[in-house]
Amino acid sequence: MTASPSGRKIERLLIVRLGAMGDVIHTLPAVQILREAFPATSIGWLIEERWAELLCAPDTSRRGPRSPQRPVADWVHTVNLIDWRKSLWSLRTIEEIATVWNDVRAMHYEITVDLQGAIRSAVLAQCSGASVVWGSAEPRESPASILYTREVIPYGRHVVEQNASLAAEVAGKYKIVIPRPELPRNRQTEEQIEEHLASSQVRSLVILNPGAGWGAKRWPAKRYGEVARVLGELGLRSIVNCGPGEAALVREVEAASQGAAFGMQLSITQLIAITRHARLFIGGDTGPMHMAAALQVPVVAIFGPTDPARNGPYGTRSIVLRSAASPTTHRRRPEPDPGMLEISAEEVITAAMRLLSEETI
Fold this sequence. Notes:
Layout: E1 2-3, E2 9-10, E3 12-16, H1 21-37, E4 42-48, E5 75-79, H2 81-86, H3 91-106, E6 111-114, H4 119-126, E7 132-136, E8 150-152, H5 159-171, H6 187-199, E9 205-209, H7 221-233, E10 237-241, H8 247-257, E11 261-264, H9 268-275, E12 280-283, H10 287-294, E13 299-303, H11 308-311, E14 318-322, H12 338-341, H13 345-357
Parallel strand pairs: 3-4, 3-6, 4-5, 6-7, 7-8, 9-10, 9-12, 10-11, 12-13, 13-14
Antiparallel strand pairs: 1-2
Helix pairs in contact: 1-5, 1-10, 6-9, 7-8, 7-13
């Protein structure tokens, strides 16, 4: 057991951060701060099932002693909110909700920390059974704060710093060093990736990520292909990460690359494993970009409507390209941001070569 700032002993603490990929990765340093402050406290994490591999490798127990396969959380609890909403009153959904919630409440968490700041995450935090629920005084969705018993005004420009400041307040710390995020390792998957790269004769790997959460954040796929073609002439092989529904984008990149790039549809565990081998990542404001930064892979970040000071690559060497014409907005427009279209393939290639050249410095 470890004492809280009030002197109370804490046996169990629950984190609520449901998703998505980049947001979970941005939360990892905050949870590691809590881990360091409360080394004897058991920490659980409530997360969407589809993102659970960011915390726990497949075929690994989701509770018990931590390991490289589950490095941060002692317990991983999962929800399926998207599926549940589709059939909220079905017997199967009711049984699944009951199972998850009985599991969470059976842990008797004393403190819950909502690091998402949404109404749904605040409701789940409040329903956890913990007597103390911490959250931001300036949550993403304002009504969420009504459900907190303790509020923190976060500080810092980047979302990693904001999350860390909330965790520091919970821990009673005033000076913090933001730790490097830890992601699960799966030896079998890593061996499979190594064999695939060897059989494909890939020695110098660049990851391209043309997809994004919405159209305004997408740099043209053809330009990714042009970048891959030039890098290929320099002996660098590019793989194109293919997320759900992005097959057409990937084919366009492959065609423009003239054989220098090939697409791969990867699970989260596979993406973690292959990113560890990359010399460079090129992409926009997406989960895979934040994963690359967490693994300290150099990043060429192509930004449009989102603010790189808040959401840019954190903790790694990077070059952010953004046009002054891009407004800062989170409106989910389907069409590309006009400012992103002003960023040329030549600018991206120049940034890539600069980062690659710094490897030897």
